[in-house]
Amino acid sequence: APEQLRGEEVGPAADVFALGGILYHVLMLHPPWQGATPIDVLARARTGKVPAPTSADADLVLPAGLCRIAMRALAPEPGERYPSVETLRGDVLAQKTHDERCSQPKNTGG
Hints:
Blueprint: H1 2-5, H2 12-28, H3 38-47, H4 53-56, H5 64-73, H6 85-94
């Protein structure tokens, strides 16, 4: 979590951030931050800025609700994230696979 990388006090929000990173990775098939070295990745993570799933890869068709959950869990400020892992879990379980999509496939022609 950005606050952890800055040496600040961490709490449940850091766990929520970690789970947001895992959910993002599952949705996008790559982690939220990439870099040439682990130091590059940590530097990007420290900023807390994450590319939205819709702008990262238009070939994927992703449930919008899960995209919103991942982005909220990855919010730069702890107070903007889910207050607990249990709350995040509740939103994940409430999602339906046939919900709106946060991106459309590039090749939609027949």
